[in-house]
Fold Polysaccharide deacetylase family protein.
Amino acid sequence: MMWILAAAALLIVLCYSVVPSFSLRYLQTSKRKKAGRGKVLYLTFDDGPGGKDTEALLDLLDEYGINASFFTVAGFAEQYPELIVRMRGEGHLIGIHSVHHDNALFRGNKFTYSDLAESMFTLKKLGCDVAYYRPPWGHLNLFTLGWIRRLNLRLLFWDVMAHDWSDKETPDTICTKLMHRVFPGAVICLHDGRGEAGAPARTVEALRMAIPMLLEKGYRFKRVDDDE
Ligand SMILES: [Zn+2]
């Protein structure tokens, strides 16, 4: 009897969150691979703003004239409003990535709506025109799909990650992973906040190496909304 209940619970979680999350991410990547957009890459940063590390990242992007897309955590945006203003002023796209980085996997309708609406409200108060959403941990649930449509949000996952949040990685290993994993049209997901000890600083150092090499290979960088 117990195993039937356990199997039923697992099936519900799979249908409610895991399958929609992974299948939508897979479909987005397949679509981008087929789109043939040439040697374009989309740098995206989650989990910030992260104080000094985000400042260093913005300095680096400015050095190369690159516009990126930031999926900000609303709680951190309130903590560093000056960084949101700077991102906006320097031409970066600002999307939402929840209020406190909670996982939607086991959450219901009420939480799902308030997490999206409160994130939008916070960022709009800071002058941002919010149109894009990336779910924390890459997990959404069936209610998320309804709410993002009603709130006019576009869902954006990623194609390439480099485990830059992990303290097992170094700037060299992050850079090497990026160089091996990118493909024309890829959305790269890195992090300018949270992560294990010193994580965002390693990400900035990795990019300091990777950006010139990617430019050398003929890649250009765009915001995720540049081709829409
Ligand atoms: Zn995140």
